[in-house]
Amino acid sequence: MLYKHIKVNLSTNNIMNTNVVNNYSKLKLTLFFLPIFFLTAIVVFLYQRDALHIDKYIQIQKNCFFFLNSKLSQFPNTLFNLNQLGDCAVFLSFLSIFMLYAPKIWESLISASILSCIFSSLLKHVFAVPRPAASFDKNSFVIIGNTLTGNNSLPSGHSITIFTVLTVLLFAFMPQKLNYKILWFVFITITGLMLVFTRVGVGAHYPLDVIIGGIIGYISGLLGIFISKKYRIWAWIGDKRYYPILVLFLLFCCISLINKIMNENLIIFYLSLISLAVSLYKIINVYIKK
């Protein structure tokens, strides 16, 4: 009976991963047209308003920033918890179980995450846009959490992370029927926008920062998928022989989350830690029974 149970589980795992691989195999390079179109539209919008320089870029968003910040900040606890999903260690913890059930997702996530970090660091340095707290009176809007005053507002790194991860999931679990595809795409997009605009609510970014960050995250996620299709750099993730490496990685993440809990006692950290604990148990259990 135990053998049959393990065999059924492994079969289920293979089916999920196979479905993800099949979904990724259908993707075309034309998917990059949409984000490029949106980025071009934003540049044209800023050019028409003479807002391609820092001061005007900030000023044309001032009223929108204050409005969104005042409305969204009415739910500080929820906002601050959701805001933490822009942290790779937190968001990816919820997806750690896919190391076992759909390693192809993690092959894409790792490549996509590396690219998103590069894009975020490079573009923040190039644009050097001051944060809202460095541009406006700190008492004129709501700040939740740490007060950020650096010149690294554009693009939003949290937004890049969120849309990078959501894009990988979007295409991994894309339904077959057109109606369901549309609903799935709309759901992921709305979810992503709700999460990234928490950065405006906590007073850390301007609206265009998070929109541009989301678009770059989408591009990063797509690139991660295409890299995983062409190069099997991270194929070892699905190999049971390397599960001890995954266990060590997850243990390191657990320590990181425990440290976060000690500094900021947020429910999102506890949920992330529970997800990691379940993944650890599952992976260790399969490795022992291999």
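Next protein, fold it too.
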Amino acid sequence: MNQWTTVEGKLCKTFQFKDFPEAMAWMVKAGFAIEKLNHHPEWTNIYNKVEVKLCTHDAGNIVTNKDQELAAMLDKI
């Protein structure tokens, strides 16, 4: 299983899906949950992969409990 890692001070994970529509559907679903937390990730999508990077900008670009909470939520989606 692909785990979260810390790279250059950010919590990072790549989610891989069957195809592009499945990746986009996950991003849309995740977007609603992300908005509720009001804690927005850096993410990119290339075909069936979504790369997510988390850090708290207003805390000086470090990983905080908000990032851990968002990471756990994204894992559940």
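About the second fold: The helical segments are 20-37, 65-76.
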